[in-house]
Amino acid sequence: MNQTANETILVLDFGGKQKELVARAVRSLNVYSELRPGTLSAEEIRRINPIGIILTGGTGSACQPNSPKCDPAIFTMGIPVLGICYGMQMMVHMLGGAITQNDTAEYGRVAVAPLGSQSALFSATRPFMALMNHKDSVTHLPTGFVSTAASSSGIAVCENSDAKLYGVQFHPQASHTDGGMDILRSFLYGICGATGQYQLDNYIDTQISQIREAVGDKKILLALSGGVDSSVCAALLTRAVPGQLTCIFVDHGFMRLDEGDHIEAAFAGQDLNFIRINAQERFLSKISGISDPEAKRKLIGNEFIYVFEEEAKKLGHIPFFAQGTIYADIVESGGEYGAVIKSHHNVGGLPEKLGFTKIIEPLAGLFKDEVRILGRKLGLPPHLTERQPFPGPGLAIRVIGAVTHDKLEILRHADAIATEEIGRLNPTPSQYFAVMTDTRSVGIKGDDRTYDHVIAIRAVTTDDFMTCEYTPIPHDILRRIAARITDALPNVSRVVYDITSKPPATIEWE
Ligand code: XMP
Q1: What tens digit of pLDDT does each residue of 23-55 get?
Q2: Most exposed among 311, 330, 387, 488, judged by the fewest C-beta atoms under 10 Å?
């Protein structure tokens, strides 16, 4: 699935949160990147034969004996290396330079001043702002290196052009670094000699021919959830093998307002067999009276498998099973991409249960935003390609406590109002939705006292969904959301806004 086998940049991961952003930034500059563990052996690296290696940031102190280190042979293989933050410190330390442990961190946008000597990485002659996030500083360079830029806390850029080794203390992939992408471009094109062959259009073409070759004239089955990955997977398979794909969409009744119809409409008229299973009552009765979110998740997950199995069996033998596994699923589960079915994305062991041995994962080389771009190129509507993360058990875990038909209906409408209003913001928060709390509260409507539901609104800003900040929504929008919800929904007495970040809270309330 590597588009340009002889033009790979290897991104070695030392635990920094921005590892995926680094790999994705390389791809956005039209060079294929692969993200691998920092401890990858030189032998394995030789096998991959990259044109360059990037060492990512990490969390520890590079001078500690037990901190993660790369194979030292990397520095003498003749392959250009760029160390970022921890990656630069580790390289300097391993090659005999010195690192000082500071009491205070250099954090946020920091001025970096060029020191006058010629740099292969940047052309700035005046100070520029760059995103820093480190405590240790490089204070003495190994033989052969020169420092070409510094911040107030130490060396910010170091270069050894003879050995093709480079380091930046800041994060060039971050939008907060002025000219950061130009630095990466200089590394890829000026130093590693990339020619920039990696394009998503090529990805579509390669996948289409690979799918055709693998599937031939046989049939293929996909569990379509309506999420970005499975929807794009369906669109790609339909393009590759028209008429041979069957999608089973199990509507468990916990979708948002009209969502099931939107999903069905997106695939209507396409050359595939789309089967929608309306199993709302079956799922609702399964979790009737259950308050514990984990128990709800488990019951819904199991029921999904039963329903899917029943339907798949009705179709007779279909040799291929497709999954919308993406690159992040594989990286997170620590596996090798393209190898075997990943439990992460292998919904309840479905392929094994149904006796499938042939699995097609056509998105396994892509990051999430590449999947969205691919979806747009394949003509999917924005409500599918730009869809926010949504839990598999859907609104069943956004209704806190026991789920009822009435609570679901109220939440669906409250959510539609909240998302319509918040969706007007530019930029929109990363994720936003309504929650049906398990609290009732006193209110007044007309002349009557009421004792009714409390709806909470959540809107967060995040890069990776592992942490987030609550989004400060303007008060006039919040006021309008509260007024519209309480006007439209007689059983809601109060609307509250969640101002907690993650940690300590999570994004979902569950
Ligand atoms: P938490 O609540 O743990 O959520 O902060 C982190 C992100 O994961 C999403 N989420 C899910 N996504 N299936 C998914 O595909 C799930 O079951 C699921 N549960 C939570 C959540 O919406 C947030 O973006």
Answers
A1: 999 999 999 999 999 999 999 999 999 999 999
A2: 488
Question: What proportions of the chain, in percent to the nearest 5, are helix, strand and coil?
Answer: 35, 25, 40
497 lines ligand 1 (CB under 6 A): no
Q: d(Cα 3, Cα 194) in Å, to the nearest integer?
A: 13
User: How far is the centre of ligand 1, averaged over its atoms, from the C-alpha of 465 (Å)?
Assistant: 8
Q: Are 300 and 396 in contact (CB under 8 A)?
A: yes
pLDDT digits 0-9 by tens, 263-297? 999 999 899 999 999 999 999 999 999 999 999 99
Secondary element (H or E) of residue 480: helix 475-488
3-state secondary structure of 375: helix
Q: Is the pLDDT of residue 101 over 80?
A: yes
Give yes or no for a contact between 210 and 349, defined as CB atoms under 8 angstroms apart. no
Measured in angstroms, how far is the CA atom of residue 353 from the centroid of ligand 1?
A: 25
Give the closest residue (by CA) to ligand 1 atom 7: 465
How does the average pLDDT of the chain come out, rounded?
92
344 lines ligand 1 (CB under 6 A): no
Ligand 1 close to Cβ of residue 502 (< 6 A):
yes
Please state, in angstroms and as integers, the Cα–Cα distance from residue 154 to each residue in 105, 137, 143, 158, following that order. Answer: 12, 6, 17, 11
Q: Is 391 in the pocket of ligand 1 (CB under 6 A)?
A: yes
Query: Around Cβ 349, how many Cβ atoms within 10 Å?
Result: 11
Q: Locate 145 and state its tokens.
A: 């290196």
d(CA 452, CA 443): 7
Contact 80/53 with Cβ under 8 angstroms?
A: yes
Mean pLDDT score, 55-80: 93
Residue 431 Cα: closest atom of ligand 1: 24
Cα–Cα distance measured from residue 295 to residue 303, given in angstroms and rounded to the nearest whole number: 12
Cα–Cα distance, 272 to 246 (Å, whole number): 6
Kindly state the average pLDDT of the residues 314-320: 92
Average pLDDT of the segment spanning 309-322: 92
Q: Is any atom of ligand 1 closer than 6 Å to the C-beta of 135?
A: no
State the distance from the centre of ligand 1 to the C-alpha of 18, rounded, in angstroms.
19
**Token duo for residue 211:** 């799918």
- Indicate whether 335 pLDDT > 50: no
Give dist(CA 271, CA 339) in Å, integer: 30
The residue length of the chain stands at 510
Residues 6 or more apart whose CB falls under 8 angstroms from that of 311 comprise 248, 250, 275, 277
Mutate to test the pocket of ligand 1, among 230, 462, 508, 510 (most ligand atoms within 8 A of CB): 508
Distance 394 CA to ligand 1 centre (A): 10
